[in-house]
User: What shape does this take?
Amino acid sequence: MKKYLFIFIFVSIAQLFYGQEKYTIQGELPDHSLDNSYLRLTNSSALSQEKERIKHLFIDSILVVDGKFHYEGVLSQKPFLAYLYSAGTKRKMLDFGLYFIVEPGNIHIRIANWADEGVVSGTPINEDYNTYMITRRSMENQLLFLEKYAQYPDVVRFHLSFLLNGRRMSRDPNFPKYLQILDRMPKADRDILLAWLDYTIKKYEYEKKTKPLLDSIRNNAPRFIETIPSNSSSTTMKNK
Assistant: This one.
């Protein structure tokens, strides 16, 4: 009996950790612009309308010390697109941020100048991401990357969703290629993106139908009368 109990416990533990692989992120910020502040690591694979999924994208905060940061995690799913950005600085400017892929292995990130995109390396998908999506970014290279990694939906779905836009469908010569990439994806994920495409088409058609009415309202807006408060030097009526 004890023997079977031991086997059961062993199998349960094995199943618990099956598919979980470690990853590390080693980062450099040689300009020391974010020393002693935190970076936020998030999963960035959700589409803009996936409200429930967006609620669960935050992964962790990472402290920057002396121009460097380090993070260790366990990957319990297939590789996915991540976004690393500053949690806020005293500077009055937009948050700094960088896209990369979370996958098993040692991921290296170097951001020498926040005005430019950083360099990601160390793991297979990130090497390609750096080459095709950052360093030599072009539509041709972007399509090469998305097609190559279509079997990893959470790596490509965010970028692909921007291309699958009903507004540009009729005038985009690459649109058939986007559909070819979709065909290489698992069915469940393909169906989600096809539903997304249908949503953008209907949204675009609705905007076209309502545009004349909205333009008419804007062009014929009434001229409101504003009354200056009585405590001013004089009470005047003026038109806006």
